């Protein structure tokens, strides 16, 4: 049995009846037969966020939508939550702050259950903070270089459905190129993936395909022969790097994470 | 006789007595023996801009500082201006709008004279708009993808001291990665160079070396095997590209523009 598909969304996906990204999620979950769980723990206003998604998923024809209410680590150990997860065909992890997800769920029974269910084929989706949490490595804090010249990237530990990948979201819209480059310069074995808003990657079998409106950027430092990270007195990082590989993809294109290249064979792109 | 050195500055260079970038310019110009001309045509407030630089260059020990007042194409054909240029050891092109430089000076006698003098060894520097104008190709207008999702890059013609190079400035500080990538995707034979504020490249003999506080990014699409630029209905560009090479450099590092790689031999870096 192979692991489930992961739909990783760059935030701000259209919550309308024909929004491409969420429609894809519902299709993967099993359409009208699906039972979808919303995990809003990243958000400080989980009820509001959940209501929005319940409304959207119902618009998309899903009858059975559940909220996975986990506001403490105790909740994340509660057997009733595991029973709920067990009944679902797909889980949607909302936006908010990815640190809340790792602090409240990382290492708990819920985390373990999600991993087990996913390995057996359950579909998982996450947007914004819910996208960042998907990989083992995640960016938890960073200023940008915009205007104030400061950049300090801090990494944390995500749920680990992917390894050797670092997901960033709201990518072009929040000008996060510098922070992803900085993170990858510090960890050249990891592939950086910057996902724009209302855009998603569907990951399966070490490949991903792009859905949605904008662009996905892939940053690969593996073949670099030189990296030197200089941290200035004010904490800003300035980089000297040689020969990073850069790829960008739009809707319909696919990327091979194992071989680190754009897939150009016909038939693979829709 | 070889062409003069070009000091290309990403804008907002420190105008203080020990500012590294402008100190380097004054050194190249011949220190106290230099005669520096300030060309403020890019600016809508040329007198204010010129005063600032006169003050700074005098602080740096330069006695002879002249302003090259060119506000019309007629001025740019005036023999007295050519006489002035002929008396200078270096010209500093200020910031403002690079389109003003191309509209008021491009193709005039002044343009031709600067080119001739530079080919005989005169030092040229430009900051911000004055940096963009240095190459044959330049970005004249572009929205960013920041917040509003729109990106349309328009290219114009610069003074052409460099060819097959596209200079962008205020690079990290104004989050211009997307616009440079878009421009290079449209013109993969051109090398994109994004220069941060208070940072400069000194170009000579098809190599450059970095001076100043921050970072210089080099974007090279020459070895890419796939580029597809999609323009959406609202004019935004979304890119699919494969295998662009990316380099970043800080103070003391050098880049070989002919071979498109970071120079790592000892002795070349200071």
UniProtKB/TrEMBL annotation, chains A, B:
Domain of life from the UniProt record: Bacteria
Transmembrane segments: none
EC number(s) from the headed UniProt entry: 3.4.15.6
InterPro entries tied to this protein: Class_I_gatase-like, Peptidase_S51, Peptidase_S51_cyanophycinase
GO molecular function: carboxypeptidase activity; peptidyl-dipeptidase activity; serine-type peptidase activity
Catalysed reactions listed for this entry: [L-4-(L-arginin-2-N-yl)aspartate](n) + H2O = [L-4-(L-arginin-2-N-yl)aspartate](n-1) + L-4-(L-arginin-2-N-yl)aspartate
Pfam families according to UniProt: Peptidase_S51 (PF03575)
Example GO biological process: proteolysis
Active site: 128, 170, 197
Key words, A-Z: Carboxypeptidase, Hydrolase, Protease, Serine protease
Uppermost EC category: hydrolase
Cited function: Exopeptidase that catalyzes the hydrolytic cleavage of multi-L-arginyl-poly-L-aspartic acid (cyanophycin; a water-insoluble reserve polymer) into aspartate-arginine dipeptides.
PANTHER family in UniProt: CYANOPHYCINASE (PTHR36175:SF1)
Family: Belongs to the peptidase S51 family.
Protein name: Cyanophycinase
Species, as recorded: Peribacillus cavernae
